[in-house]
Amino acid sequence: MKKEFNTFYKDKRFFIPILTILLFEAILQTGIYSPFLKKNSYAANVNRITNHILNKQTEFDPDILIVGTSVAYQGLSVKILNEKVHSTGLKIQSIAIPGSEVIVQHQVISKSLPKFKKVKLIIYVGEVLIPWVSQTDLSLPTLSMISEFNRIDAIKRAYNYDYDVRAEDIFYILSRSIAYRRDFREFVLDPNKRLKHLKKMKKEPNLNPWDYENSYNEKISSYNVKTIEECKAKTSQENADPIPISSNAEHKIALFKTCALAGVTSTESKQTDKTNLYFKRLSQLFSEFQKRGIKTINVFAPYSTLMNNLGGKERVELWTKELEKIQGKENTIVVDMQNILPNKNNGDYYYDIVHLNMYGMEKFSEALGDYLNKNIRTLIP
Fold first, then answer.
1. H/E element holding 76?
2. Which of 9-18, 140-149, 314-323 bottoms out in mean pLDDT, i.e. has the lowest?
3. Domain residues for 214?
């Protein structure tokens, strides 16, 4: 038996596949595949955004950094904000990441902030609803994004953030061949689509210092909805009505998804185990700013009037109370801009019920720019 066992392990047919797999994994660990990731996938987005602003640092080294999710990514124009504060000589950059939980933002900050030596102010764009939906499982989008940075830090941080870390989560974070397996499959099935995108990116590079400027002109008002239920009914796949001229299939799907999500979102506004978990995580992110002596202001972006029952002053009050615990009462600044857009024709300013379109982005950016101009000497002495 021992002889057969030794013969098996000395057989080249055993070693060659294993060595091939290990070599493939080693190549992936170099990051060589990152540029080939599917356009707008979570991993592709977090890589593109972070790398772009870091690569532009020599020509655009920010004094103010925006941190947040897609609400900040789509809702704020870095171009408009910089035009607003131009006279101060300060530069504003955004490192907001669509779909990012706090742990993802922490990973991004850990990579970028040490290189941005001039940053004096963080604009943290919070989503007022998020603390009540905190999760303990690591979702696939979160795993795909945190694993694009220091992977040992990602694992440690997942435990520090009180996630229920499973063995398969650790394998996903550590192994590129596991993390990219779905992406490989799509690439092999349709390589031309991926290569065309890469060719276009090379031919038409983004020359702006910032990664993104919202150009969506689609709006909720195209569907003339007054309630969440009406929104779901008019944008569901079962609805065979023609798509409005000012909308498209992609917009209709996005609107349905956000309305469906709002329909099942808790209206609770009191402190819960989930809110405690969220603010514990947020405190770890904010500690990165505090240890560098960087001031933070907390901004709430505009939400559609369809979401009026989900915002509420009680939730903002809890946010303020928890932020004061994290930052100290004297250092806590909350700028609530949830209601800065007019109630009349409110749907004209939103792509869906969570995200602004380009018209809403302009209004929000101008309002925040005015606030910064008015208070800049207090914010950055």
1. none
2. 9-18
3. 31-379
